[in-house]
Amino acid sequence: MPLSEPEKIEKIVVPTFAAASRSAPLLLQGVSITTVLDSSDQDDCAMFQVAGQVDLVWGTDYIRGPKFSLFELGHLSLYDIGWYLAGANLSDIAAMGAAPIGLVSVVRYPKNMDDESFKLVLEGIRDGCSYCGTNNVGGDIGSAERLILSASALGAVERGCALTRTGAKVGQLLVLTGHTGLAGAAMKAATSGRAAVTDTEAFRLSLKKWKHVEPRFGHARVLARYARHVGACLDTSDGLVGAIEEIAKRSRVGISVQESMVPVHPAVTELAEFLDSDVSTIVFGDSVDFELLFTVDEEVVGEVTTALQEKELECFVIGRIEHDSGLRFIRTDGSTSAMPGVAWRH
Amino acid sequence: MPLSEPEKIEKIVVPTFAAASRSAPLLLQGVSITTVLDSSDQDDCAMFQVAGQVDLVWGTDYIRGPKFSLFELGHLSLYDIGWYLAGANLSDIAAMGAAPIGLVSVVRYPKNMDDESFKLVLEGIRDGCSYCGTNNVGGDIGSAERLILSASALGAVERGCALTRTGAKVGQLLVLTGHTGLAGAAMKAATSGRAAVTDTEAFRLSLKKWKHVEPRFGHARVLARYARHVGACLDTSDGLVGAIEEIAKRSRVGISVQESMVPVHPAVTELAEFLDSDVSTIVFGDSVDFELLFTVDEEVVGEVTTALQEKELECFVIGRIEHDSGLRFIRTDGSTSAMPGVAWRH
């Protein structure tokens, strides 16, 4: 018999989220943000003290979670979708160049869900937050006809240093923080119905993008320091081509991408071969890798790259903002074509 | 054929939420909060500029919405549950004594939902926010197997003036901002299966508590001015007896309530009679009226009442914080009994 809701809150929710969220205030240049009330207080709201000039960023994401094909097929656990909830929400904060203040999460559970399972979801949320150096500070626990997961993330960034989706300028370089296509390849492999492909090391590697979403706060906070040289920035949650199209549309610019400069993970190449798919279609397509794509002035790109490398963070210059409208994909053989891949939602 | 998701965002979401959210910064004593990015920007996050010393409060609530019995029975519209989503979330901000900064909302719709219905939900959210002088500044629009509604609200309050659920002191008076039991009476009437009762004016009046949730910001902001004299404060979203029990438990105090001082709305009396129910059980029971219940030093209660009356806001002293533990309900005839009603979730 699962615990009642008040018992769940007391015996599972509060202990799981009882992190040291109050001990370390978030310190930005000229501003401190201190958590005063968190999950353990179970008040009407979480609370923070803010002192100084700061820009706050705030978003929300529902995740399909238990309706993910990869969950239904048994490749993701309840812990994984808890982590995903935190990661997907926090990635929006990273995409603004901000540091995370915290997460509030909605976990509505089916009445017959055992407490161990419920706890796994919460532990995933906790560890997803913890990976980003933040904490789940509140939320809404209750029952529903199925597991329903939604959350909201809050972040802070030095005044005027937030990175938005607009502002790409002609001549700026287009930079990506990591490999894309892994998440999409994992999905494609799992739903292919071919058991052999999900037994590969390449699949296990690709699946990590779903199991442990890693918002790019390391990159984000370096980029915020270069905010006046950064144009547009967003995460690749709708896929790489979706992010490229978004930048072009928002800033009314053209973009050229060099095939030879786009990083391709060996696992994607291997899975593409297995699945008889085109590698570029996977790398550019609907793949929720939560990398950041940004534009930056050419004269500082070396400095930014060095600053990232000092923190052992990689980045890849993959193209350039062009005066002529339209998207151009310049193939390794020198030919030009339309951008490969199809964005999520198209 | 309903619009695609990008079209929905462009043609319904952005125009519906295109309020004047950026024109009027929220001004508290010594601090201004200005919305910089809102729904119309469709960026990764909404954004605010904060300047000064401020406490931020932040919560989230999922609502059953389309699974409400009153919705399933046809007494609530899609517009109403949109408003309820905003109201329930913003009420948590009011319960902290704060002013609302904004709302972000998750509206996941079934693929076959027509655009007019989708728009009604958003208009309800918009008007629920607008009633509180705030705006929906962002969110997550997408599809799901059924209509899923969740949101998060953010608020600001002068440093040190937030009202929490703890801190009730012996000798303080217990005060309620309005009538409770109306929402519960409406629910009881609708689910009684007796058509005659839902044809009454009393039912229509009670139903308003569900159709137009009215977070008590007027009261909240007056109470924040008296923060050092206010002990505990919370909203009655779990019912009046639930709120009373919560105060007693949090502050480890006893509470006595005078039956003769508890306001009873004539509509509740009428519906109780119709339904052959006990009035007090309805007034104290599981009823989501979103009133505030707070404790306040006896020496300022007159001043607080006057300050509220100046804004045409009512309040009712219903009891007192006692040294002896336990809850005592003092009946009109002088006898003492256990508190009537059963809280939500018990």
Strand content of chain A: 25-35%
Which structural category fits the helices and strands of chain A?
alpha+beta
Order of helices and strands of chain A: HEEEHHEHEEEHHHHEHEHHEHEEE
Mean pLDDT of chain A: 94
Spans where pLDDT lies below 50 across 5 or more residues of chain A: none
Total strands of chain A: 13
Number of alpha- plus pi-helical segments of chain A: 12
Straight-line N-to-C gap of chain A: 44 Å
| Quaternary structure annotation | homodimer
What's the arrangement of secondary structure elements?
The structure is a homodimer of 346-residue chains.
Chain A: H1 5-17, E1 26-28, E2 31-37, E3 46-63, H2 69-72, H3 78-94, E4 99-109, H4 115-131, E5 136-143, E6 148-158, E7 173-176, H5 182-190, H6 195-198, H7 201-211, H8 217-225, E8 230-235, H9 240-251, E9 254-258, H10 266-275, H11 279-284, E10 292-296, H12 301-310, E11 316-322, E12 327-330, E13 336-337
Parallel strand pairs in A: 4-5, 9-12
Antiparallel strand pairs in A: 1-2, 2-3, 3-6, 4-6, 7-10, 7-11, 8-10, 9-11, 12-13
